[in-house]
Amino acid sequence: MEKTFTKEELAKFDGQNGTKSYVAIDGVVYDVSDVDAWKDGQHHGNTAGKDLTEVIDNQSPHKRSVLAKLTAVGKYVG
């Protein structure tokens, strides 16, 4: 069964204090823990544990091309 994440549950995965770093894009939660650019849950002023759909669409130079390289870990229900 696929794991679902509420906003509060996703917020726990902020990459701080040894936790995993997860981000949500279009209702899918991705694990960015092993991505060097997301060290300690931070990446260009963004923080893991959040829905970053608008950020990736409006601010990211690579847009959604990076999503194929990430592991989906669940569904974001907000």
UniProtKB/TrEMBL annotation:
Transmembrane segment boundaries: none
SMART domains: Cyt-b5
Domain Cytochrome b5 heme-binding, residue spans: 5-77
Pfam families: Cyt-b5
Protein's name according to its UniProt entry: Cytochrome b5 heme-binding domain-containing protein
Organism of provenance: Paucilactobacillus hokkaidonensis
